[in-house]
Amino acid sequence: MNKTLSLAFAVAAAFGAGSLALAQVQDAAGVRAALQQAGHAEIRDIEQDDGLWEAEVRGADGRWYDIHVDPATGQVLDARGGAALMTADQVRAAVEAQGYAQVRDMDLDDAIWEVDANDGDGRQVELKVSALDGRVLVIEFD
Fold first, then answer.
1. Closest to 70 in 3D by CA, of 41, 48, 87, 91
2. The predicted structure's pLDDT at residue 82
3. CA–CA separation, 128 vs 86, rounded Å?
4. Domains of the chain
5. Is pLDDT above 50 for 7?
6. Structure confidence at residue 23 (pLDDT)
7. Which terminus of the chain is less hemmed in, N or C, by CB atoms within 10 Å?
């Protein structure tokens, strides 16, 4: 049985939150406000998915694409936003610095790295990690 946990503000404060004023997002209205603050005008299909908020936004090219919002901080996780994304080596180092070991099977999906690792107690976990700053956003225990 999988348990999904979202990390709270302590981790966000430790690793920096970015240039926008960020705050916890608890509902679709908060997600919409965070996306609008990030410059997205056309937004649809807001839902929670695997511990993160997900929505579709219309890009400058007119096509719709998925975008994620961290519920703990309100940070918009958008690979198309112009920010440099962390490499696999950078993410591995960040995850290990947060207490995880045996990092393996790393996959980048938009601005989120999905990482298999072991936690401090040796349990296998799947992590969702911000490709913008290396914060662990979601922990799923196997």
1. 48
2. 87
3. 13
4. 9-78 (3.10.450), 84-141 (3.10.450)
5. no
6. 83
7. N
